[in-house]
């Protein structure tokens, strides 16, 4: 670490370090940033949130809340005056101990699902499935993989805050989350969540490390979820798309309105579209965004197709009470059951000690001009090719094809 | 709320309000009640109770302890000098995180069962079963329903205390408990637990609200459990009964002694009797009670047959060490597996936004005269008809009939 | 308790007693022990350890940490300068609420497994299995038994510390852990963990009590786990052995090197050897030890074959990162699935109120001379008979024989 940083460890289980309440501001640090900033940490009490730690980063126009107790996910955010995230029927943040992953046929993960940005993985990131794993005796055993995996319900064992004392005064929250046990994959998520004072964006810089002496499969998906105000009647999804396909019959019926959203609709069934995006020809980086009905607000996701080559758009525009929400989901693969993804060659493997980097930047646009600029950027990439829209469920992308 | 009340919020997760310790007495409030009263709240530490909140209400002769962490159940009580509740082999109150509902074939609920009054529900209130529910894609999925449902192991997200500053100085503890998750029923329990200083009774005023835009089935049962001293050799159950039936062969053999209790008996197997009670001809309200051997103590349950039409008497007079206990259980249905109850038309459905009210008054009698008066009340209602006793297991009431 | 003791209750759930931080030293107590000693208690925060209580006993040369939250297991130790215990891929101590026993086909216990000495039991101590238990109606039900049972993930409801104020100033930590619920076995573990200032040893004096009015089966195994420095390339296991057999084909292939250890080896599969040890002819007590490569360090287990007649040696010399570890496991039976152990007559039964005592002394040797003395002791017992080595999997000891 450079001499131009200040750093605080908030949690380190190995050394029994734990800071319950923490607060710093630019003033505390005598930093003359044009933009005032703060990082505060608190521990929640009561209800399903009892014992949950939250770290709130305010960089000026943007604020977001990191949840170390839930695998360093991003619980909620706010840009200018508008909320980022969604209203789930579950009011969280929910402590992992209230989430029983195997309940209800393996979908207990939903008991804790109310975050803005939640990672799915690391051993599996898709639907519940029975998979084969080698047990302690080297024999193959059938084991249930729970919906969206375990990483979002494991607390970080190390959490730290760093502030650069020179412009641009970068603010960083780091965390280590281990998905690990004897005889099984030992995957570590190392995350750095970074922003600069005054910036309309922040970045998750994640590294997944195979700590074991054996090769380990892994899957990683960023489930980025939006409700009102970004999602509303007439909101649009935009991205440079190479190929687009429906995941099942419900999505197939909706194929012609895949990128526009209706008003909250009671009784709607979710629609999932699977995509391969196009990236910038030089960098292979891309951009996907959700845009408000007026076109004056947008939240863009920036990432590299080298790192996150597959994209899922989850549309669930139900009644407000039921969860009016859409998910933009860049990932290493599709969130199908792992055996299917493995068969299609989309499950990655890390050699012993090997790591995999994935970076996701969340960028807010708060005016028509800024949103327009994003359109142009997407348009430029889209010029490489026309969108190929599958009008049947593709057998290589979805098990529903059969 | 009237201007004649004082009110304190003890927990409100939405606003991050949480009061760990709380205590008020009539003196603190300068209330000149003839009966001194107090409401105190504490948080337990250690063992299976670590992190459990308890609210103790003392109204003079009667005290009872509400457990917000366990779905606003009533953990224990005391009237005059005698204990209300029972001695379970589990020493609680047990934090829900130690209860693994799906363990042991779906009966993990028993790991936390030691309360005086515990609600069973809200999606299901009976035995473990495989049921069909629609999943996120609208497809029917088989899912395991755990014994007695989830509501008793969900903490309240809002808890408040209210005291009326005018006679009768009503004391109220309110709570909100949500059994809810994305794609699934979203049922809210709103409870007001009320008593007056000096009163031998308190009332649970419950409302179950369907928060979802879709119709929701629900089931609700009040599992009111008694051990010594109310339950002992020669104790009697009394209620105005229309029809009574054994739930299985074990109960069938005990049919002629359904309303009297033996001394604690090692190795006894539980006996369950299903009943339809009679209500007052005008109000359709009824009363069921357990009476001590001497006939000088009783605990009565008062409720409306409009709200709670079905009644189960659970007799488990085992050795003291094993749980010498009987349960009086007014409910919306019988605690059979939900698919059976549905087939027999006893599962209720709430329209979107609709709510269902259920009120249960617990009333203590501490002298032979008071107990006698309750007898007369029951006798008056019983005059409508004779008890119909089924001497075989009825196919409409129990799946054991086959 | 004698008048020459001082005593402190740290946890007593029944009386709502809980001491978060505790510390005593010989100086605090004005005890003129030649060896300074201390007993301290703390509560961990953060990560998977959040809410875990630890009690550290330092008797001079020896220190060890008791974990009341995890069934009074021994988390770690240190003798002179060397560590006792092992490095698990799970970094604990892990709070039981993060352990989902039934996950992954019943091996969720591994999610919390990083202790030096952990008890397996009490209803079952072996591999996951489907077993028959009588339910509330007296009917036989199939229920899943989780790997190594429940006792290690149940917190003690009573914890106390006692110090004798006369030489040898014995230090004792006592705990009560109940594995109990309505309709099911009610087994209490009562443990006294004792050491003397300056001693190279400590003793677990355990009593398992059947609290129920019905007979109860039980199984108990002490899973004593060692990594570096005691376990290393060339370490030796020693014990007076009557009969030794491989548990499966993997162990069969390793039968000729059963008592020596390789260096950490990536990709190794565990080898388990089942044994019947020989005991001293008078007392039927025996000794089993792990010895460092140089022969200058050893940890011995002393116990009675009357109490713990069966012994398992678990060898898992994997890569350091994966868990380089061996387990010495004296027990009431072998850690096979319970139905197999029952069929072979090794599952014990306690009558109502009956108890079973098991005592295990952990003794450290820190010099070649002390280790030599242990060799001689083992050699003297071994003279009774030669080791019988089974060169096939024995049908009476392992279900893999078939």
Which CATH architecture of chain A is right? Distorted Sandwich
* Secondary structure: number of strands of chain A: 26
Spell out the helices and strands of chain A N to C: EEEEEEEEHEEEEEEEEEEHEEEEEHEEHE
Overall residue-averaged pLDDT value of chain A: 96
Overall radius of gyration of chain A? 21 Å
The general outline of chain A is globular
Taken together, the total number of domains of chain A comes to 1
Oligomeric assembly = homotrimer
Question: What is the terminal separation of chain A in angstroms?
Answer: 53 Å
User: Which fold name corresponds to the CATH topology of chain A?
Assistant: Beta-galactosidase, Chain A, domain 5
Assess the beta-strand content of chain A as a share of residues.
Answer: 35-45%
Which pair of chains has the greatest number of interface residues, and how are they split between the two chains?
A: A-B, 36 and 43 residues
């Amino acid at each position: 670490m450079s001499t131009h940083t200040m750093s605080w460890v908030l949690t380190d289980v190995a050394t029994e370090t734990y800071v319950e309440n923490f607060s710093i501001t630019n003033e505390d640090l005598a930093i003359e940033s044009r933009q005032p900033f703060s990082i505060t940490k608190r521990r929640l009490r009561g209800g399903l949130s009892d014992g949950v730690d939250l770290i709130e980063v305010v960089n000026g126009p943007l604020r977001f809340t990191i949840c170390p107790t839930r695998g360093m996910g991003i619980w909620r955010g706010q840009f200018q005056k508008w909320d980022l995230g969604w209203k789930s029927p579950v009011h969280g943040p929910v402590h992992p101990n209230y989430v029983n992953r195997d309940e209800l046929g393996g979908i207990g993960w939903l008991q804790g699902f109310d975050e803005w940005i939640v990672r799915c993985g690391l051993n599996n990131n898709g639907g519940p499935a029975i998979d084969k794993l080698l047990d302690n005796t080297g024999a193959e055993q059938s084991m249930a993989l729970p919906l969206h995996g375990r990483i979002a319900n494991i607390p970080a064992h190390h959490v730290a805050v760093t502030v650069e004392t020179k412009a641009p005064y970068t603010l960083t929250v780091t965390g280590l989350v281990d998905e690990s046990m004897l005889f099984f994959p030992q995957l570590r998520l190392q995350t750095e969540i970074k922003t600069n004072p005054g910036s309309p964006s922040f970045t998750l810089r994640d590294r997944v490390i195979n700590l074991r002496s054996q090769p380990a499969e892994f899957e990683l998906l960023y489930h980025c979820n939006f409700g009102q105000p970004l999602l509303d009647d007439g909101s649009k999804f935009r991205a440079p798309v190479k190929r687009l396909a429906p995941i099942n019959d419900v999505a197939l019926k909706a194929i012609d309105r895949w990128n526009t959203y209706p008003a909250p609709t009671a009784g709607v069934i979710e629609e999932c579209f699977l995509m391969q995006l196009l990236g910038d020809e030089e960098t292979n980086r891309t951009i996907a965004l959700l845009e408000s009905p007026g076109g004056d607000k947008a939240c863009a996701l920036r990432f590299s197709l080298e790192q996150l080559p597959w994209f899922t758009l989850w549309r669930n525009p139900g009644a407000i009470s039921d969860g009016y929400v859409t998910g933009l989901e860049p990932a290493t693969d599709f969130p199908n059951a792992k055996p299917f993804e493995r068969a299609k060659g989309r499950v990655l493997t890390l050699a012993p000690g090997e790591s995999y980097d994935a970076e996701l930047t969340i960028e807010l646009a708060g005016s028509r001009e800024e949103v327009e600029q994003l359109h142009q950027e997407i348009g430029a990439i889209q010029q490489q090719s026309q969108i190929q829209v599958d009008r049947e469920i593709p057998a290589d992308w979805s098990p529903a094809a059969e």
